[in-house]
Amino acid sequence: MRWFAGFWFAVSLMAGTLGTAPAPALAESATAVGNRVAVDDATLVRGLDALLQPIFAADKPGVAVLVARDGKAVYRRGFGLADVEHKIPIAPEMVFRIGSVTKQFTATVILRLAEQGKLSLQDDVTRYLPGYPTQGKPITIENLLTHTSGIVNYTGLPDWQAHMNRDFSVAQLLDLFKDKPLNFEPGSQWAYSNSGYFLLGAIIEKVTGRTYAQALETEILAPLGMKHSGYGKSVPSFPGEVWGYERHGDTIAGADSLSMTSPYAAGAIVSSVDDMLRWDNGLNAGRVLKAASLDKMFTPYTLKDGKSTGYGYGWAISEYEGHRIQEHNGGINGFFSHVTRLPDDHLYVALLFNTGTPVVDGDFLALKVAGLAVGKPLPEPGAFTMTPEQLDRFVGVYQVDSVTTRDIVRDGGALFAHRTGGAQLEIFPTSDSTFAYVSRASRIVFGHDASGHVDRMTVTQSGVTLTAPRTNKPVPVVRHAIRLDPAQLEACVGVYELAPTFNLAVMLEGSSLMLQATGQSKVEMFPESATMFFLKVVDAQIEFQPGADGRMTSLILHQGGQDQPGKRVQ
User: Fold this and answer.
1) How far is the CA of 256 from the CAs of 64, 170, 335, 521, in angstroms?
2) pTM here?
3) Cα-to-chain-centroid distance, residue 266
4) What is the mean pLDDT of the chain?
């Protein structure tokens, strides 16, 4: 999940598998430390170098990496370029936009105000924002903290995407989403919403009488000595702040402009890996929050039906091989970040990328790093194999809820999992009934009935475990791309208007047809015919309509059961 940018296609567009040699086996170098098992520092450094160096090219944007144990950095390195034009390499002390990792700071300011008796987490938002239209439903501060408010996510609105480089006042941006209907009854469901954290910023300003940036500095940054962190600006302004980029196939370009008044309390902070360690040490030492508040922050919220959301206050809560994990990521124009805490192992991992489209899934990479550090590397494809006939036992459609399924399909000698509306992702067996994703930090366990027939799957992802029964629904046909000649691809090139402020631009790059929606990164389209194309990053198809001259005059976006027409305007 990408936790700031809102996409029309409603998915993360991060792509790719690690594409590296298998990491060295580290279990033999693991040592017990109390109830923990840890890899010694020298072995960990070698393992991380072997994992990370092949991923990041020296002449492309990259990442700053920090791994700390017991509050001290044991690995602190930069890979790639901070400034592609001037060939300046990334150094770990440099400053990056951290996107939605901001949310843990916003949540902490709210908790500090609660400790000071200036607000209660059970207060209705209208107590601090009089006149905010809650549509007759009680929406508490805790609902905002836990993404259970039902308020629409403003970064998913085309009106915002078309104007993200505009400077907004708090009131102006609130006007973009405050009158939209709630997506659900507050407290009944979980849906990630930057709007909730935008409202928390407004509440902080109301309660403190200071700007959000001033409250952040006073309550957290200054006391912890985080001198390389603060509220970002539209262009790099902190000493050592890096430039952000986007990857379009093999091409690297500067990120689209973004006014930092838009992310605000949901994603506007910049920081360094060193300051992020100061932040983590401050949390652990009780210098920021009391123990009771910290416990609340790291406790998953429970919905009205008793189900856990796997999300606390600004943190996703999960586990890996019996190790508790507290984590969050952040995606924002030109940047991606991920921080992970393993509290029982006294381990902290911070990854700050200066591209919004890293060559590797940042969440998955963070878990790979943590797995090496605790002596339990993630499974690698090929360690356990199955024949195509054995894989066919798992092929089917599994019902997650009333509207969502997970399809398991086989293509050649590999299995792929496809969630309704999402990308088709490869999975590989790790035992006779368990599978891991090639490029995601998720796990699937298949169950069977008394006769041995596979009848269900259990998926664990981001701390949430869901069981889906197998259905008799027909398995979708695996889509395969065909080859078109350059003239057929060129006929599709143009700009197509789906709404007054939302276009789909189709362009030819080399032999690939690329699609770019307003305010989003480019994605590749794959032809099934001269007029029908599909996307791999999300479950969507583009159908073109040709004119008399053979050039396309319009298109239809097929996604989520809806058909959105778009007329060619350029």
Assistant:
1) 22, 22, 11, 9
2) 0.82
3) 14
4) 89
